[in-house]
Design brief:
single chain, mainly beta, 5-stranded mixed beta sheet, 4-stranded antiparallel beta sheet, 4 helices
């Protein structure tokens, strides 16, 4: 009965004109899909092991599978394979990856992965961040950061070069999503003190996060706001400012001095796509220069699609003149010519 009630409430709320028409875009862009696995929601660029490759978080989210995987995709050869994981604790009863980030320290490369339902008990606040050392196609377990107070529903993470972590907690219940309640947070982890703290609260579904040495960007999905917060040396954040109003924001990626964000323009289509893979959901990607005097007005459409090429896009970035777009539920990543972008892209430092 509870599930039926939630479905009816969500249907009524999502049907009330909560939708935006797709922006104008270049339909002649050359794009092709690459098959990965179910739910390639997030990816990072690893440029420290031989040829540049994507490392991709994969998990079936429609009927949440007990186990997901991490895949690598060689950008040069197009070869994709599942990465081997070793050394994980014996009480890790499930592997349900979500947001990720990558960093290099002292000549070693580390992958940070948000994991849900660690002990496979269907408990929403049993989450963690697993840290792996990358060696070839092997992920060697290093540690698992667990904290039910500060990691109660982590969605995305961003890791600085010194190991500081920023993570978003998105929502506590479905009604937070439906009624746009400001119950989500951004939390910070200090590797020196080995402690967490809340640095932003009162957000409506905090989603993507991108941390830079001097600022942190946060996508508030249900309030349709892209926020920027000044970052202090102790990791705390100052007063945020809205730099863009975009419907259904998801993940954030760096692109030179600019940032790239994905967005979901049709709530009902997203909901239906979640239930049925054959129902398309629009995907939109924006390029924003946050230091413009009016960044909201100068944002540019990088990609837009009704969901025929790729549905429910979650992460996008540019490398070597190619735009890569992942998705929440499907099995593919879309690769397009980045014909209207010219700034050289550095490696991903977050989501």
């Amino acid at each position: 009965m509870k599930k039926i009630l939630l479905w009816l409430v969500s249907f009524l709320l999502l049907s009330c004109g909560i939708r935006q028409p797709l922006p104008e875009y270049d339909k002649q862009r050359n794009c092709y899909p690459i098959e990965i696995a179910a739910g390639p929601e997030d990816f990072v660029l690893d440029r420290w092991h031989t040829q540049p490759r994507l490392i991709i978080s994969s998990h079936e989210r429609r009927e949440p599978a007990r186990y997901g995987d991490i895949y690598s995709y060689d950008i040069t050869t197009g070869y994709s394979e599942k990465m081997k994981r070793t050394g994980e604790p014996s009480d890790l009863a499930a592997f349900q990856p979500h947001g990720m980030d990558i960093r290099q320290a002292d000549g070693e490369t580390f992958l940070y992965v948000i994991l849900h339902d660690l002990y496979y008990r269907s408990v929403r606040d049993e989450n963690g961040i697993a840290v792996y050392r990358i060696s070839g196609n092997e992920l060697i377990f290093q540690e698992l950061l667990v904290d039910m107070v500060y990691l109660w529903s982590p969605n995305d993470i961003s890791v600085l070069e010194n190991g500081e972590i920023y993570a978003t907690n998105d929502y506590r219940s479905e009604f937070d999503v439906y009624f746009r309640k400001k119950t989500s947070e951004v939390v910070h982890y200090s590797p020196e003190e080995k402690s967490w703290s809340v640095v932003v609260s009162d957000l409506s579904f905090a989603n993507g996060v991108l941390a830079l040495p001097d600022r942190v960007y946060v996508a508030a999905t249900r309030s349709d706001k892209l926020m920027a917060y000044p970052r202090n040396q102790d990791g705390k954040l100052g007063t945020g400012r809205q730099i863009a109003q975009i419907k259904g924001l998801d993940n954030i990626m760096p692109y030179g001095e600019k940032i790239i964000v994905t967005a979901h323009f049709d709530d009902l289509a997203f909901f239906r796509h979640h239930k049925d893979k054959d129902v398309p959901a629009p995907s939109v990607v924006f390029l924003i220069h946050p230091d413009d005097l009016h960044p909201d007005e100068s944002k540019a459409v990088v990609y837009a699609d009704e969901g025929r090429q790729i549905s429910a896009a979650s992460t996008a970035f540019v490398f070597q003149d190619k735009l890569y777009v992942s998705q929440v539920f499907g099995t593919k990543i879309l690769v397009c010519d980045a014909i209207d972008l010219s700034v050289s892209h550095e490696s991903k430092t977050t989501p």
